[in-house]
Specification:
The protein contains six helices and no strands. By secondary structure, it is an all-alpha fold. The chain has one domain. Helix 1 runs antiparallel to helix 3 and helix 4 crosses helix 6. The termini are close together.
């Protein structure tokens, strides 16, 4: 994996803890709402505000559970590796992002 430089004084464990806490609060608060509300939720926005440090955590989440971080990843990275034929097919969309994350050094391919 490519070494990435972080611009924070927090450890990886602390960053993961913040991400997991925000993710849990976000999921609890939007479970019965439309996607527009979900992406404008303050917990979701706080995850986005974590910046690039959230990217490997989102990709790792996709690897394990395929949570749908697609919009957040596009917003954070400015990229969209989803192949046209994969749009609307979450498992294939996740595979595209995971492959992108491995190529860019955000996550390991294991």
């Amino acid at each position: 994996m490519v070494e990435r430089t972080t611009h924070t004084l927090l450890s990886e464990e602390e960053i993961r803890g913040i991400f997991d806490t925000l993710k849990t609060k976000w999921k609890e608060s939007v479970s019965h709402h439309a996607s527009y509300y979900q992406t404008n939720n303050p917990y979701y926005r706080a995850i986005i505000e974590m910046g690039e440090e959230a990217v490997p955590l989102m990709l790792g989440s996709l690897q394990k559970r395929q949570e749908l971080w697609f919009g957040a990843l596009i917003e954070l990275t400015g990229e969209n590796p989803i192949q046209e034929g994969h749009i609307g097919r979450p498992s294939l969309m996740a595979e595209d992002w995971i492959e992108w994350g491995i190529e860019k050094g955000y996550i390991d391919g294991d």
